[in-house]
Amino acid sequence: MLSRVPRPFLGIALGGALLAGVALSATAAVATTSASAPSTGASLHPIARQVAQPAPFGIEQVLGHVPDLAAEPGAHGGQGARAGGFDAAPGTLGASAAGDEPDPTPTATPEPTATEPTTDPTGEPTATAEPTATAEPTATAGPTATAGPTATAEPTVTAEPTATQPTATTPAPTPSATPTTPPVDKTAPTGTFVLSTTGLWVGQTATLKQNALADNVTEAAQIRRVVNWGDGSAPVTLAPGATQATKSYTKAGKFTVSVTLTDAAGNPAKAKIDKPAMTITVPGAYKLSKKAVWPGEKFKVTISKVPSGTKAIDIDWGDGWVQPLKGKNQSFDTFYWLNSRDQPVKPGTYTIRAKFTNANGTSAAILVGKISVRKDSWKPKVGFTKPAKSKANKVSSWKTLRGTASDKGAGLRTVWVYPYRFTATSEYCYTAKKTWRKIRSDADIDKYCGVRVKVSKGKWSLKLSGMRKGYHAFVLLGADWSEKVGRAEVAPRLTRN
Prior knowledge:
By secondary structure, the protein is an all-beta fold.
């Protein structure tokens, strides 16, 4: 962007003498501080002005670039490992404790004791009968026989009884437990989910929340949940413990959301979703009045069919500028000039996009249209209309400066005249307040010097007050919308009134 003419630019050879600084630079800039001059500060957007404004810009606020769409959420991690497992098979039930079983070895019966014979009081021995063997271990003597009064017979020896072996008792075996097979899990899990909304703009985010999840065997954290958003994108498996999923749709249409549940036994089921149909739309309708323009050439943008509830619309012009607009139907004029780096826009095609904002958030970037900016190969032609040679040194001949200015291609944007007067010790410049001001620094030139003139049918004029005899220099600069500059200068020495 052009600034005011610096002091070294004022060097004009007058009568063979270099009065100040170096020769005029072809790239010297044009002052733009008058009330009607366009502002190019970073806070003012060059394409935000309205038709009725004489200055290029009228918008006070400019946003920076809007962020890209969020990427499609990818599939989360797969099914988690099932915790634990089936219960262990039961062991042998009813085993006896040590020492519980009876000893199979029989208890020995003590041997019987032999009985001595008894002498009858009559003197005759009593014969003892042979004992009868019994199951009992002790032998019993038989009855006593009575003999005659004759000699006593020899006593009968009692035979040893035969020991009876007891029969060993074998305990009954303990029956083994019969193993049981766990029942087959054929019951599918159940779950309910809910969508945050059923209608969005392209790029806005929908949230699917889990309200309930259960199974007769499988823990809830181990139930596999796969979300299908219905738009052809890859299904999303929720991570264990996650209770919601989000989605930004990239195209318009009607899509049915579903969730498939699968337990550890592989039983599948569809979760219940209240109102699973999602409607995605593209807000607004757009129209550009032209397909190609020169830098600075106006064209009309029309935005219609703005949905109710729209809070704001942001327009990205493709040149680094983003312009905020109200959320309503509208039509306005605009043009390309300087990009966001305060440089002239380059020739080429620019894509214009819009983003809408409502209570559900901000939409994706929506195509408004494309427009081509033509290449400008010409710089302005500017010049002074000089008085007749015989009157060229008269003060009266320069009280009104006149000249021409024209441009092909983009067209003239601004024309400025810089009148200077020199004395032996001082320099002065003419200001927009129609006064001569002493120049003490280059900053004074930037701040005070120069007058913007209006061009009508290729001609311009500027009345000067306070003209007097002496050395003068008049510099003329013209800039077009592609920031090409044309220059002319004249340095009369006025010796007559």
